[in-house]
Design a protein that fits this description.
By secondary structure, the chain is mostly beta strands. The chain has strands at about 5, 10, 20-25, 35-40, 45-50, 60, 70-75, 80-85, 90-100, 115, 120-125. Strands 2, 4, 5, 6, 9, 10 and 11 form a 7-stranded mixed beta sheet that branches.
Length: about 130
């Protein structure tokens, strides 16, 4: 069973940057599409970005386009989310997830992802 562990969260001022990592153990994620989701207090889980197993295609939610960049290093079994120009509304718990079916349409719905990490807190505040 694949275990996913996120890291890199923290407190950052508006306009700042963070790089989140999602490392997998217990199996390879090299053939899985990988996604990032976030959940703010009192809100539903929200799709952020997803990347194909090969890294050839990425999909973002509109609110992060041009600010976030999703990438992966299959040799390291790790996925990265570079977050720039952070805003207070980006504050949330960020979780990575694996889509074992590797939907070619790059799934946005949480229920299409089978493995989940515990999440890492990102707080954007001055």
């Amino acid at each position: 069973q694949v275990q996913l562990v996120e890291s890199g969260g923290g407190l950052v001022q508006p306009g700042g940057s963070l790089r989140l990592s999602c490392s997998a153990s217990g199996g390879s994620i090299n053939r899985y599409n990988m996604g990032w989701f976030r959940q703010a207090p009192g809100k539903e889980r929200e799709f952020v970005a997803t990347i194909t197993w090969s890294g050839s295609s990425v999909r973002y939610t509109d609110s992060v386009k041009g600010r976030f960049a999703l990438s992966r290093d299959n040799a390291k079994n790790t996925v990265y989310l570079q977050m720039n120009s952070l805003k207070p509304e980006d504050t949330a718990v960020y979780s990575c997830a694996a889509d074992v079916t590797s939907n070619p349409n790059l799934a946005r719905a949480p229920q299409e992802y089978e493995y989940w990490g515990q999440g890492t807190q990102v707080t954007v505040s001055s």
